[in-house]
Amino acid sequence: MLFRSRGPLIKAESGSELFLRSMLLITVVVLVGVAFWYQIGANLRDINSRGAVWDEANVLTADQRAALREYAAELKEVYGIKLRLQIRTSPVALPDMDSKTLFIGINPQTQQVLVEFPTLLRKALGDDYLYRMQNEHFGPYFQKGQWQQGLADALTRLWLDMGGG
Fold it and tell me: CA 147 to CA 57: how far, in whole Å?
């Protein structure tokens, strides 16, 4: 005989014990599946947000980078907008972008700030909003040496003005 019967996968003395053991086995399989799904989702979210923050000047702390990546992931998840944040030591230049990318470039040494909104966000908030963020918002923070706080405040204000709560 090519195949031999090995007996049932779940052994039990009675029907109710077989049912209970079967339900416990199904529960374990489902819990492992849910844990795997959650872990893969968390890893994918982390991977997707890693490219959002580029700190060439190496002035952000690990906690600040993590918070910015979390913000980028939430922005993508809630509004479908990709964040590209660059902290530069060289002059800030606008990279090639698509219509769903929010770009913020900052050079702390020269106090240069370049902001570009996605098309729909620019229409929703207006050109004046973009102008104020790029040309007026960061000035006081640079004078106090607290441009990181200025960035956090700008992103918070932007979230609230987009309708976030």
Answer: 13
* CA–CA dist 100, 120 (Å, integer): 8
Look up residue 128 and give its two tokens.
Answer: 């004046």
Structure tokens belonging to residue 84:
């590209």
Model's pTM, two decimal places? 0.69
Token couple for 90:
């060289």
Res. 9: pLDDT tops 80? no
Residues 125, 161 contacting (CB under 8 angstroms): yes
The contacts of residue 165 (CB under 8 Å, 6+ apart) are none
Identify the three-state secondary structure at position 137.
helix
Distance CA(100)–CA(116), nearest Å, equals 11
Q: How far apart are CA 42 and CA 110, in angstroms?
A: 37
Cα 65–Cα 114–Cα 131 angle in degrees, nearest 5: 120
Cα separation, 74 vs 97, whole angstroms: 19
pLDDT band with cut points at 50, 70 and 90 for residue 87? very high
Place of tokens 């209970």: 20
Based on C-alpha coordinates, what's the Rg of the chain?
25
Backbone angles phi, psi at 3, to 5 degrees: -115, 135
Residue 46 — pLDDT band, cuts 50, 70, 90?
A: low
